[in-house]
Amino acid sequence: MAISPAELFRDALTLPPEVRAALADSLLESLDAEIDPDAEDAWRTEIRRRLTDIDSGVVRMIPWDEARQVLQARLGR
């Protein structure tokens, strides 16, 4: 007899968090059946653009502690 999706979900919730995370990652990865051959080049281009913005001063780098405070303030935490 096949297990229903609801039963499978209920059973999965009993797993430790790190195992659930790995399972979720594997399930999401299984949805990416089609590989975009241009993705790697697109990421290289984006990385170069971001580095150029940083090097030219178009964007200002801030320390993680400051970024975290800004994010927490925006989220109301």
Can you walk through the features of this model?
The chain has 77 residues and is mostly helical. It has a domain at 45-75. It has helices spanning 5-12, 17-31, 39-56, 64-75. The N and C termini lie far apart (47 Å).
Entry keywords:
0% strand; mainly alpha; single chain; 4 helices; 77 residues
Provide a quick synopsis of the model.
With 77 residues, this protein is mostly helical. It has helices at 5-12, 17-31, 39-56, 64-75. The chain has a domain at 45-75.
Overall pLDDT score: 93
What does the overall shape look like?
A: flat
**N to C succession of SSEs:** HHHH
Extended strand count: 0
The level of helicity is 55-70%
Class per helix and strand makeup = mainly alpha
Rg over C-alpha atoms, rounded to the nearest angstrom: 21 Å
C-alpha end-to-end distance: 47 Å
Q: Biggest sheet, open or closed, and with what strands and sense?
A: none
- Unreliable sequence segments: none
Helix segment count? Answer: 4
Fraction in beta strands:
under 5%
Strand and helix layout:
Layout (H helix, E strand, L loop, with lengths): L4 H8 L4 H15 L7 H18 L7 H12 L2
